[in-house]
Amino acid sequence: MSKTIEITSSEQFSDILSKSRIVVADFYANWCGPCKQIAPVYEQLSMSLSRPNIATFVKVNTEGDKAKDVAQAYAVTHLPTFILFRDGKIAEKVKGADPQKLKSLIEKLSNDIETAGEGGSSGGGGMTWLGADLPRGYSDISDVIDVKGLELLNADDTEFSVRTLFNRPKPSSLEKSDSEQKDWVESDTDEQLLLFMPFNSSVKLHTIQITSLPPKAGEDDDEDEIPMRPKTIKLFTNRPHNLGFDEAEDIQPTQEIEIGEDDWNANGTANVGLRFVRFQNITSVILFVVDGDGSSEKVRLDRVRLIGESGEKRDLGKLEKIGDGE
């Protein structure tokens, strides 16, 4: 496993942020007693979770002439401070030498590391494939999804996994490949799907990108068996768990959207714009595929991407200043 990297300059730190999708930084000082006490815990977590170009653990000595510029850039005023970066941006921050809070943060981070590692190892490099351009000023925040809490109802789960929807590489249907590995999901008994997505931190959602790449019908194909793209979807926010299909039909959604044929681009992706004011401080989203764009009994999804802004961890404000060196 990779060892913790000691930061000696702001240029070095910027380079690491650009190359590693997840970066955890320990801001410390040699005179700080609590920093020394928690250092072995941090080293242990680094040794077990570091992954080249996926998850990198660094230490920033705030006393160093050059490294202290990094601390100033991220407004570090308490020691130790641990900052988690996703795709070069601050995702979460923990102040104080509390091993349990640090371990809890890293354990939740392990979901992201596992997902990123699976995606990176199956082709497409370290970057996440997007089926459409990002709206200006927003980014892909799909990595805030708590993958262990994902639930997809009415999926043909004998062949498909819900985590497939958030794979990082380009869908296999867009690649010229003879691979028989299926990297999409289809509905089972009818065209409806209920996807529950809980988040590790509160977010602001601007857009949902849905990619659907059903095969074209051949002369001998039964069109009723060929899956459809979704047409009508309903979105529900801040639910503690998934809904049932009857409940999803009856209650008022946060937003209902109809995807037209012209909304799908050449990558088979629809940019589903949201009423942004209704999607602030969101901790979970349910995507309900009500029906498809044809007469088949199946709907297909290849990828789902969440576009917006990630926020601070919901319970960070309650952290006690334990072991702060002031």
Throw out a few tags for this protein:
5 helices, alpha+beta, 2 domains, single chain, eight-stranded antiparallel β-sheet, Jelly Rolls, 326 residues, 15 strands, Glutaredoxin, disordered C terminus, five-stranded mixed β-sheet, elongated
Task: List strands and helices in order, with pairings.
Layout: E1 5-7, H1 10-19, E2 22-28, H2 33-49, E3 55-61, H3 68-73, E4 81-86, E5 89-95, H4 99-121, E6 139-140, E7 151-153, E8 185-186, E9 193-211, E10 230-237, H5 245-250, E11 255-258, E12 269-273, E13 282-292, E14 300-301, E15 303-310
Parallel strand pairs: 1-3, 2-3
Antiparallel strand pairs: 2-4, 4-5, 6-15, 7-9, 8-14, 9-12, 9-13, 9-15, 10-11, 10-13
Question: Gap between N and C termini, in Å?
Answer: 34 Å
Mean pLDDT, all residues: 84
Coarse shape? elongated
Q: Assign the CATH architecture of the largest domain.
A: Sandwich
What is the overall number of helices? 5
Assembly state (oligomeric): single chain
Task: Give the H and E element order.
Answer: EHEHEHEEHEEEEEHEEEEE
Rg on CA atoms, Å: 22 Å
Q: Structural class of the secondary elements?
A: alpha+beta
Low-confidence stretches: 117-126, 313-326
CATH class of the largest domain: Mainly Beta
Domain PITH: 130-326
Pfam family, one: PITH
Domain Thioredoxin: 1-111
Family: Belongs to the thioredoxin family.
